[in-house]
Design a protein that fits this description.
single chain; 169 residues; alpha+beta; seven-stranded antiparallel beta sheet; HotDog_dom_sf
Amino acid sequence: MPLQPFDDAFLADLPYDPEVLLFDAIVELDPDGKRVVCQMPTDKPLPFTTSQRVHPVRHPRHVAGATMVHASGMLGFIHSYYLHGMRHAAGWIGYGTHLYQVVFRKLVPPGAPILATCREVRARRGATKHFVRYAFEFRHEGDVCYEGEQSAVWMKVGEGDPIGVDVPE
């Protein structure tokens, strides 16, 4: 699949401003494999990365870990939107609940893009609430730079409904 930029409908549905989407294109949508792959440019300003106090030896500029954790949440939103048709405008919202065995494998200097994969590991789906566990693998120049599993709760809420995030153990 050639790179597919995000369309205006998707960008309008984001629960964050598009400037913190952090991805510029979809590389692959694999409904059968429950997987999405997106491209994350690293040659433009990124949250936390731009605020680093850089030292060429002790603290070289790199894509901050907090940026990658946020990117994983955005990738979960992309997954729910494109593979499950869950729309924020229709009341669906997701919140991260657990980070499992998250590992930062290498420092990523700004420059080449990261290819980020999100795969659904398992899910419990109800009419208005889903609990989903995802596996993430981010690669930079062919090497794994970030990996882990994370969970999120997705809820369909109406106007005036309180949001209660009850997280299963």
